[in-house]
Amino acid sequence: METAHDLEQLDRVLAPSRRSGEPIAFVPTLGNLHEGHMALVERARQVGDQVVASVFVNPTQFAPGEDFAEYPRTLEADRQRLRAAGVDVLFAPGESQVYPDGPDAVTVSVDRATEGLESTVRPHFFTGVATVVTKLLCAVRPDRVVLGKKDYQQWVVVRRLVRNLLLNVAVEAVETVRETDGLAVSSRNQYLSPAERQAAPGLFQGMRSAVEEAFGSGLGPEELADLARERIAAAGLRPEYVAVRRGGDLEPVTDLNGERVVLAAAYLGTTRLIDNLEFGPRPKGLGG
Questions:
Q1: Residue 288 included in any domain
Q2: Rounded Cα distance, 272 and 169, in Å
Q3: Last residue of a domain, one of 106, 141, 174
Q4: What is the pTM of this model?
Q5: What does residue 244 show for φ and ψ, rounded to 5 degrees?
Q6: How far apart are CA 192 and CA 178, in angstroms?
Q7: Between 152-164 and 125-140, two packed helices, what is the crossing angle to 10 degrees?
């Protein structure tokens, strides 16, 4: 596996693949890698002849008071894990490479898909995400970019920016990787105490049981969200938001007659967890 720390190195490493027309698949990450990231790498290997992963802790998606300074920087461990997973190129740029004229020189914003949900509590977040993803896509110039659905709103935002900026890249989605008890794999899980880790699956379980009941009793989107909020709180978490939107683009809905997704964020102690569950005529992953 080759490692590039700047654009010149990256171009030199990828030049043979670009000349030969080998499909390049790209996995952007903040580092501190876990099994969810490895699922993205696995998918990238399926859809690309050359797999590029980036590790860059992006300052523009952290607001003052958030954990940018404390975010784990584990580049050497990440490098070893990516190499073992079959990644061909690691792009680990410094901040000056990504923001040569400073973080505010050029920004990218995405409307509609960023309304509500995460933006309600983190209004800066998706401008930071959209900006850095656009920059990384311009640097790597992949044929495909692989993202996880665990960060569902982020996936929708990237799809929208790729489509509207006319970027010639396909957006691949990978389903959320979960522990055996249903908890979505996340770097934030490491901050949970043993007691909090016991309660954490209640986030997904609360959404799932509410969706099951909604389909059995004819509830609407708002009633479903309220019920999920109650179930999540009863499991010992502090819900921050719960909402039901249209699957794929997060447009508001007034019924459950189509592809839908319930999205939630909740706290356990000081740790903030997010998750989602897609459902349609029959909820996915509910059996039957």
A1: no
A2: 32
A3: 174
A4: 0.93
A5: -115, 130
A6: 16
A7: 60
- Active centre residues (catalytic): 37
Tokens standing for 229?
Answer: 């909020």
Residue 101 near residue 135 (C-beta atoms within 8 A): no
> Do residues 129 and 167 both lie within one domain?
yes
DSSP result, 85-121: TT-SEEE---HHHH-TT-TTSS-----STTSSTHHHH
Domain presence at residue 180: no
Q: Look at the chain and report how many structural domains it folds into.
A: 2
**What is the block-wise mean pLDDT of the chain (288 residues), using blocks of 10 residues?**
97 96 97 96 98 96 79 94 98 96 94 86 91 98 98 96 96 97 95 97 98 89 98 98 96 94 97 95 54
Residue 120 sits in the same domain as residue 65: yes
Rounded Cα distance, 247 and 227, in Å: 19
Residues 6+ apart with CB under 8 A from 164: 110
Cα–Cα distance measured from residue 43 to residue 160, given in angstroms and rounded to the nearest whole number: 21
182 part of a folded domain: no
Phi and psi at 219, nearest 5°, equal -70, 155
Instruction: Please state at what angle helix 125-140 crosses helix 7-20, rounded to 10 degrees.
Output: 60
- Supply the pLDDT for residue 288: 40
In what side-by-side order are the strands of the sheet with 89-91?
A: 2-4, 89-91, 50-55, 24-29, 144-148, 170-174
